[in-house]
């Protein structure tokens, strides 16, 4: 398995209403796809500054997804132990599927 990323995100102090909280990762993920499309369109651009701007937009949108997920986990009362166990289950599923 390749090394992953380490994130340190805190949840927002004032969570949204439950349904809004649950929909937020989906909304943010759609924005990631849009940013990826823009970035992909610029992949071979000779204009390096334009490529940098689109790449920065893509990573910023990705971090918005991570923040939305962290907020949802916190709002639903999941602990770090719960998250660690879920990560291990996810890694195991990916090992079984030959992805890791």
Task: Give the secondary structure arrangement, pairings included.
Blueprint: H1 18-41, H2 48-75, H3 80-96
Helix pairs in contact: 1-2
Proportion of residues in extended strands:
under 5%
Q: What is the total number of structural domains?
A: 1
Number of strands: 0
- Terminal CA distance reads 5 Å
Summed up, what is this model?
By secondary structure, the protein is mainly α. It has helices spanning 18-41, 48-75, 80-96.
Give an overview in words.
It is a single chain. The chain has 100 residues and is mainly α. It has one domain (18-96). Helix content is 69%, strand content 0%. It is built from three helices and no strands. Helix 1 runs antiparallel to helix 2.
Question: What distinguishing features does this structure have?
Answer:
100 residues
């Amino acid at each position: 398995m390749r090394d992953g990323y380490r994130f340190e995100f805190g949840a927002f102090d004032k969570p949204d209403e439950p349904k809004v909280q649950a929909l937020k990762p989906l909304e943010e993920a759609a924005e990631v796809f849009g940013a990826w499309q823009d970035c992909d369109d610029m992949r071979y651009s000779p204009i390096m500054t334009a490529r940098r701007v689109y790449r920065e937009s893509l990573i910023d949108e990705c971090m918005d997804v991570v923040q939305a997920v962290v907020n949802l986990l916190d709002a639903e009362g999941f602990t770090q132990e719960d998250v660690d166990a879920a990560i291990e289950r996810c890694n195991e599923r990916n090992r079984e599927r030959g992805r890791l």
